């Protein structure tokens, strides 16, 4: 493997982390993401296993150390274990993570672990079974929790993503805190982001992460020092809790300063930002299996990365919903 200088943009940000979407299809109907379910549009096939391997090799040359497989719902792909294995065995890649809605977690987690999974992020916006079903359109929270228990037994580092929603936020926070007393997961509260599709939902459900953060600080949660190459999450610990809490607040000032990630969509487009106007099509180079040329193209394109997502100004770029390129 050629190891070039680590990829850096014109604003001094370095990119150690690739989010690789392996499908934009999803079986859930989360109210803020795909409220009417996945709508098929004419497009080519998702990246094949060989194409995903080419992408990972190219990014490893550029200094990427961590790969997250996401979607859509990545577990809809039967070959996900192979995708995990290939990413994990790519020279230069140290950590492989998957973000999933977890709907079949108990039956797949052993195989993901066996194939090299280091970190699992499961999305759970509420620990109330009924409310979970209302948000996602699927009444399967107990099964997902069984899968999380198994991931912890296997020693897989486990994080739970919870989108902050204004209505009923205090009741949900209370339930999450009870759970974290004895459960060693990191719960990451993600502030709801506006996308092209969810403007009305956003207007009625957005809750500032800083409100929850203030409450945590007042009840004894302590901010951990940030690692140099850490992303935008701020992580808190409390001596009375086995779990941790992370806050991801994309509307806060300077959020984009710590951006350390790039995204490739399941159609082989490079997204320099979650909210870019458009993806940059690299499919042909990916299809040719030429990791060196792909790495050179990514390096040439990095100069186009904007300093901010401009979400605060209401910009949602070309991002209709996050299932297209992964959150
Ligand atoms: N389907 C998988 C899942 O739900 O974990 C992976 C893809 S999903 C797009 C990745 C993450 O983005 C999830 O944690 C989801 O809750 C979050 N997400 C989706 N739309 C969002 C939005 N508009 N604002 C904030 N987070 C969002
Ligand atoms: Fe599917 Fe994830 Fe979007 Fe929910 S957030 S609809 S699980 S892609």
Describe the protein.
It is a single chain. The chain has helices spanning 49-61, 80-88, 105-114, 129-136, 141-154, 169-182, 199-205, 209-218, 283-287, 291-301; strands at 17-23, 66-71, 95-100, 119-123, 157-164, 186-191, 222-223, 234-237, 244-248, 261-264, 269-271, 280-281. It has 327 residues and is an alpha/beta fold. The protein has a single domain, classed as Aldolase class I (TIM Barrel, Alpha-Beta Barrel), CATH 3.20.20.70. The protein has a 12-stranded mixed beta sheet. Helix 1 links the parallel strand 1 (17-23) and strand 2 (66-71). The structure holds S-adenosylmethionine and iron/sulfur cluster (SF4). Iron/sulfur cluster (SF4) is lined by residues 26, 28, 30, 33-34, 71-73, 101, 123, 323.
What is the strand and helix layout of this fold?
Layout: E1 17-23, H1 49-61, E2 66-71, H2 80-88, E3 95-100, H3 105-114, E4 119-123, H4 129-136, H5 141-154, E5 157-164, H6 169-182, E6 186-191, H7 199-205, H8 209-218, E7 222-223, E8 234-237, E9 244-248, E10 261-264, E11 269-271, E12 280-281, H9 283-287, H10 291-301
Parallel strand pairs: 1-2, 1-10, 2-3, 3-4, 4-5, 5-6, 6-9
Antiparallel strand pairs: 7-8, 8-9, 10-11, 11-12
Helix pairs in contact: 1-2, 1-10, 3-5
The protein binds S-adenosylmethionine and iron/sulfur cluster.
Iron/sulfur cluster binds next to loops.
